[in-house]
Fold each of these.
Amino acid sequence: MTRAPGEYRLYSDLAGWWSLISPPAQYSADAAALTQVFDSAAVDVREVLDLGSGGGHIAAHLKERLALTLVDRSAEMLAVSRGINPECEHVRGDMRTVRLGRAFDAVLVHDAIDYITCQDDLRQVIGTAFAHCRPGGIAVFVPDYTAETFLSGSGRGGSTDTDGRQGSFREWIWDPDPADDWVQAEYEFVLRAPDGTVQVVREAHRLGAFSRDVWLRTLADAGFDPDPRSAARSPAEQRAGAEQRAGAEQRTGAEQRADVRMPANLFVGHRPAEAERDAASSPASI
Ligand SMILES: C[S@@+](CC[C@H](N)C(=O)[O-])C[C@H]1O[C@@H](n2cnc3c(N)ncnc32)[C@H](O)[C@@H]1O
């Protein structure tokens, strides 16, 4: 079967294994951090658009407090998400081009932004976020990799369900050409059905790794004010931050809240409120 570039088996015929390969519990730390980031918006964040919502695992942790609209281009992943998030609105669409004709307090593009691998597409996705972000609202992007902090390496994960289904993966990530904006993940999925039959699937994914400058410039070009907390942290910087936090003995409530672990790479844009925008675009008066 032929697939369009950037479309993968993991999100089509293997989508039913998603919750075993990447269990919802693993998204709770990012969800806690995102809740804090949403709290920094000029508007009270209640309605959120999640672009590339996948199996709805991040949404599952956010939906108690927020009204979520979930967009993904994969019908199979939307079906998985509907199973765990029946109360959320689901829409099939491409995050580069979808236009829902309404605005949200916040637009989130979590790890799905990894599947944007060239600057033209990044511009389009950030344009989609701007088009759906209410004045005073916030757009939040959480890429796994950036050009400055990328390190090649390997990883693994997976889980088992109560029916005895087991889904696990190994991955090797490397950068075929540091001069471009993407890296490559080589995956091996081992999928065991309750009757003991096992399938092993190998698949290479191309994942974006833009520089911090590209992120900040593209956010600003779209009309967002990039948030100074936008960050790309190397694994060593992340470890140092965690040790520093663990060493703090007397902590105020604010410091404890700061203990929420922010994702390593986080890019945040604020859409100026109308008044600020009008002031910025009108000629200076004397
Ligand atoms: C890693 S999964 C997202 C997981 C999700 N954060 C969750 O909570 O389950 C990546 C998703 O991005 C989607 N995706 C990739 N490119 C897309 C695009 N251009 N527009 C919309 N969805 C896209 C895939 O279909 C897939 O469901």
Note: The domain at 153-207 is CATH 2.20.25.110 (N-terminal domain of TfIIb).
Amino acid sequence: MARQYDTESRRELRERIAELEAERDDARNESNERADFMRREGYRRCDIAACNCNSWHGGRAGDRLREIYEVLGERVNGQLPITVIEGLIETEDRLLAWERTCKEGESDGN
Ligand SMILES: [Zn+2]
């Protein structure tokens, strides 16, 4: 009876170890995927001894977005920056078309 109990306990223990190893592997894969994403977004692991933050540096996506907001200034007025930029591009396209029309008129001698 004691021998059978040992066998059962060992089987359960092996199964539990396999479960924990699978969880560990999943966690490692997720961590690697996140690190790959950070690198693709321009971040890099801190290797500055004086900083020693054990984190990531770089990226600057937030800084770039703030720069866009600053350049657009009051034009944003509660809109998404992309909406404002699309409007500016449409305005430029209309002005360029108007300029072409004016130049065609000049070349016709009008
Ligand atoms: Zn650092």
Note: Residues 1-59 form one domain.
